[in-house]
Amino acid sequence: MNIYKLKDSPKLKDVKLIALDLDGTTLTRNGLTRRTRETLEEAISRGIDVVVATGRPYSALPEEVKNIKGLEFIIISNGAHIVKPLSGEFLYSNYVDRDAILNVRRILMERNFPVEVFTEGRAYVDRKLYEDVKENGSTYLAAKYILRTREPVERIFDFWYEHSSRIENVNIQFEHQHDKTEMKAVLEKAEGITLTSSTYHNLEVGGKTTSKASALREVCRMKKIDMKNVMAFGDSPNDGAMIRAAGIGVAMENATDDIIEAADITAPSNDDEGVAYTIRMLLLGDHDPLFSSGFY
């Protein structure tokens, strides 16, 4: 369903909180646009809470996102933490069970896939991988993003073991889809974890009860807001639980098929500033901001 079919829905009057995925949703390929930032700040000024819910660790958050005026909470690492935007202070944490994550470690040590380990709001990779990406780039890894947001350690599996009681997320990368499919089948049998994905080339391991939806419920508890009063935006499988739990789930036009199917409505793509467009059309009363205001 497109956003026009929801334009006169009484549910819109009950929206008290907007939950936003970042990559592929709120951010364009050039980052957070001025129009989107201004739209979110206007929504906040009108009494609608805005919560960012991302798979990124705190250290990888764009500064312009942390500096959105009036933003109180950011959900990071697929729901492992709720943090204060500017200080990074943890307000809620949901780590992976130690035995469960050590079992995943054992499974992956028998393979040779690149892994990223998230702990305490930061993401780490093996130094050999970091240096290889730096020197040679990659056909399937986001090289510039890795070099900007990941910290190299000498032996990633040793590091993983040393921090096994406070692992918030493990990101596994695959060059070939048949490897991803095979590994997904293996990990789906593991106990005490959730398995999701945010890109074509990855799988992400979190705690048994960890998700953007569970962290969002905690935000709603703190704000005394019902989940039926939430409008949630996303584009990838790791947004699925949040989209389904919200009163109004919004899939971006560029979303995966399962997210479009799960959502109530489909918005324009992230690169067309679909978040800003939808909020202005449905919540802020603009007739058609693409024409009346102009996006930039």
Set out the fold topology.
Layout (H helix, E strand, L loop, with lengths): L16 E4 L13 H12 L3 E5 L9 H4 L6 E4 L4 E3 L6 E4 L4 H12 L5 E5 L2 E5 H10 L6 H7 E4 L2 H7 L4 E7 L3 H11 L5 E4 L5 E6 L4 H12 L6 E5 L5 H6 L2 E5 L4 H6 L2 E3 L6 H9 L6 H4 L4
Parallel strand pairs: 1-2, 1-12, 2-3, 7-8, 12-13, 13-14
Antiparallel strand pairs: 3-4, 4-5, 6-7, 6-9, 9-11, 10-11
Helix pairs in contact: 1-11
Model description:
- There is one protein chain.
- This protein has 296 residues and is an alpha/beta fold.
- It has twelve helices and 14 strands.
- The strands form two sheets. An eight-stranded mixed sheet has the order 5-4-3-2-1-12-13-14. It has a six-stranded mixed sheet with strand order 8-7-6-9-11-10.
- Helix 1 packs parallel to helix 11.
- It is globular, with a radius of gyration of 19 Å.
- The two termini are 26 Å apart.
Concise synopsis of the structure shown:
The protein has 296 residues and is of the alpha/beta class.
Number of helical runs? 12
Strand order of the largest sheet: 5-4-3-2-1-12-13-14
Structural class: alpha/beta
User: Whole-Å distance between the termini?
Assistant: 26 Å
Unreliably modeled segments: 291-296
The overall pLDDT, averaged over residues, is 94
Percent range of helical residues: 25-40%
> What summary fits the major beta sheet?
8 strands, mixed
Q: What is the 3D form?
A: globular
Radius of gyration (Å) = 19 Å
H/E topology pattern: EHEHEEEHEEHHEHEHEEHEHEHEHH
Strand content: 15-25%
How many β strands by DSSP?
14
